[in-house]
Amino acid sequence: MIDYAKLAGKEIQGLSPYVPGKPVKELERELGIEKAVKLASNENPLGPSPKVIQAVADFLPEMSRYPYGDVFYLRTKLASKLGINADRLIFGTGSNEIIELAMRTFLARDEHVMSPSPSFSVYGIIAQAMRASCRWIPVKSDFSFDFEALTANINEKTRLIFLGNPNNPTGTYFNQETLEAFMKKVPAETIVVMDEAYCEYVDAPDFPDTMKMQKDYPNMMIMRTFSKAYGLAALRVGYCIADPAAIDMMNRVRQPFNTNMAAQVAAEAALQDTDHLKKVIRENRMGKAYLYGEFEKLGFEYLPTQANFILVKTGSGEKVFTDLLKKGVIVRYLGSGLKDYIRVSVGTEEENKIFIEQLKAVL
Ligand SMILES: Cc1ncc(COP(=O)(O)O)c(C=O)c1O
Q: E strands, 89-190, where?
């Protein structure tokens, strides 16, 4: 008999697959109900722009053709919107693929990546799948990143440092001054990947201008996505802004048609509908204010967020999560250092109200 576990090796055996938020339809089937509410995966509750839906519908008859391997039209539009040269961009099947591309291109087996913890677990999963590792550096008690500890742990084997800003699952951010001070201490051959999946939602005036900083720090990469504020999570499209030499190397590793054509067409249309994006951000801001107010009335501590989700201290996070699930509301329980918390994505006005109602009911 073939021993697949042995063939895969100890790193793969030691991996736990990423557990996504439960799909709404699955919960509805399990509970035999019609209207479950999912506030678990930081999706856009308003959905994509109607112009995106039209653009994808118009594209569908063309699906027998391969996509543009070089993502030409989307690349050109995005570059012009960002005010950069198109050779500074690479696209992927969500920013998840950008994480993987960066590691496959630059990370050797005996090297490691680093990230504050808690943060996005995928950094660790991909590093380990590559037979390398991730050094998780605990955040401080107020959930801010411990930049001194991050700096102290860098050595010549630290190839990539992932900094979620705003961070998931905390929603917290760090400012320009903090990032400048850190970058000055990072060796030139350690790549700092700024994971800005939620940047469109940010209100903070001192949020780092990373695109400007890249001029001084060619070892800084920026990762963004169309999955969140643009509402294209199912289509899978994310991108990376980096030094053209880094993009060139990642392009050699990239699968030829990694960004599917529906995603390219949708992202292009999404970029054009700035009114829809503004509406999404406005709704999120209102939803945040409502949830903050309700948490305060309930006496719950929460972390002020720069994103579209809130980490809230309900106590007994797992029980609250499970009880809410039985009521048809899906939130996220993160476990480990966050046992007293749940993470809730900001939904529509109606979804937020249902969540609060059911939260009160399970307490
Ligand atoms: C911090 C962070 N980075 C990256 C991603 C990946 O998003 P996607 O692959 O959909 O672009 C997520 C998704 O939840 C995230 O929270």
A: 89-92, 112-117, 133-138, 158-164
Residues 190-234 have pLDDT tens digits of 999 999 999 999 999 999 999 999 999 999 999 999 999 999 999
- The pLDDT, as a whole number, for residue 56 is 98
pLDDT at 321 over 90: yes
The verdict on the CB of residue 95 being under 6 Å from ligand 1 is yes
Among protein residues, the one with the nearest Cα to ligand 1's atom 7 is 95
Of the three residues 229, 244, 273, the one that is the final residue of a domain is 273
Ligand 1 midpoint to CA 100 (Å)? 12
Sequence letter at residue 11? E
**Test site for ligand 1: of 43, 117, 122, most ligand atoms within 8 A of the Cβ:** 122
pLDDT digits (tens, 9 = 90+) for 98-148: 999 999 999 999 999 999 999 999 999 999 999 999 999 999 999 999 999
Query: Does one domain contain both 62 and 20?
Result: no
Do residues 59 and 265 touch, judged by C-beta distance below 8 A? yes
pLDDT at 252: 98
Q: Which residues of 126-164 are buried (b: 16+ CB within 10 A; e: fewer)?
A: bbbebebbbbbbebeeebebbbeebeeeeeeebbbbbbb
The domain containing residue 319 runs over which residues? 4-47+275-362
pLDDT confidence tier of residue 16, bands split at 50, 70 and 90: confident
* Percent of the chain residues topping a pLDDT of 70: 100
Phi-psi region of 21 (alpha: psi -120 to 50; beta: other; left: phi over 0): beta
What atom of ligand 1 comes closest to residue 228's alpha carbon?
10
Q: Ligand 1: does its nearest atom lie under 6 Å from the Cβ of 225?
A: yes
Among 212, 238, 273, residue at a domain's last position: 273
Enumerate long-range contacts of 75-80, CB under 8 Å, 24 or more apart: 77/268, 77/271, 77/272, 78/239, 78/267, 78/271
Task: Report the number of distinct structural domains present in the chain.
Answer: 2
**What residue's CA is closest to ligand 1, atom 16?**
168
